[in-house]
Amino acid sequence: MSTEKLLSRVMEAEPVGSRSKVTVVGVGMVGMASAVSVLLKDLCDELALVDVMEDKLRGEAMDLQHGALFLKTARIVADKVDILTYVAWKLSGFPRHRVIGSGTNLDSARFRHLMGEKFQLHPSSCHGWIIGEHGDSSVAVWSGVNVAGVSLQKLNPKMGAEDDGERWKDVHKKVVDG
User: Fold this and answer.
1) Domains of the chain (ranges plus CATH)?
2) Rounded to whole angstroms, what are the CA distances from 73 to 9, 29, 56, 62, 66?
3) 156 in helix, strand or coil?
4) Whole-prediction pTM value?
5) SS3 for 60?
6) Angle at Cα 146 formed by Cα 141 and Cα 150, nearest 5°?
7) Chain segment 14-32, per-residue pLDDT in tens
8) What is the rounded CA–CA span in Å between residue 116 and residue 132?
9) Is 134 in the active site?
10) Residue 119 near residue 145 (C-beta atoms within 8 A)
11) How far apart are CA 60 and CA 56, in angstroms?
12) Residue 144, Cα to own-chain centre: how many angstroms?
């Protein structure tokens, strides 16, 4: 048997382009844990990391790229534009302060969890939203905080203020400090 038979093509090769892409927005601990999980489970051909903190983003992307030798993922890229929020802003025609990204979904979930702990209720009965950017600049929407539809701000008009006896500002701080 000649070696040429070993190298003969049995079927056409698949195109080289990316067939599936996963984007992780935020390269904090949760984002990087998600990125590594995606890579280890071989869920995509291309992994994109997005964050506004350029130095951290560059470092995390390089770590993953250097470790890619041991993975099947063909491409790992990084950029600092949350493209979906940017596109929504451009298409909507709204001023930029009226378009809010969904990067604080996890913060909102943490807030609801902490509300549940405070009231000894399941978090699904607690409702509240953290908007803006993750971190110190995030904003708790105190007017929307409710338990089973009952507005907490109506029961406590000082909710979230410095002189709030229930210290709701501390709950928001726990969310930020994560």
Assistant:
1) 21-87 (3.40.50.720), 105-177 (3.90.110.10)
2) 24, 21, 21, 14, 12
3) coil
4) 0.52
5) helix
6) 140
7) 555 557 888 888 888 888 9
8) 22
9) yes
10) no
11) 6
12) 22
How big, in percent rounded to 5, are the helix, strand and coil portions of the chain?
Answer: 45, 15, 40
pLDDT tens by residue, 109-147? 999 999 999 999 999 999 999 887 677 778 899 999 999
User: Residues 6 or more apart from 45 whose CB is under 8 A from it?
Assistant: 18, 19, 20, 21, 73, 74, 75
Residues 6 or more apart whose Cβ sits within 8 Å of residue 71: 39, 40, 42
Q: For residue 46, give the 3-state DSSP assignment.
A: strand
pLDDT tens for residues 46-66? Answer: 888 888 788 899 999 999 999
Backbone angles phi, psi at 72, to 5 degrees: -95, -15
Judged by DSSP in three states, 79 sits in strand
Which one of the listed residues 122, 127, 134, 172 is annotated catalytic? 134
The gap from C-alpha 71 to its chain's centroid, in whole angstroms, comes to: 23
* Confidence label for 106 from pLDDT (cuts 50, 70 and 90): confident
Q: How far apart are CA 178 and CA 123, in angstroms?
A: 17
* Average pLDDT of the residues of the chain: 83
Of the pLDDT bands very low, low, confident and very high (cuts 50, 70, 90), residue 43 is confident
Cα first-last separation, the chain: 65
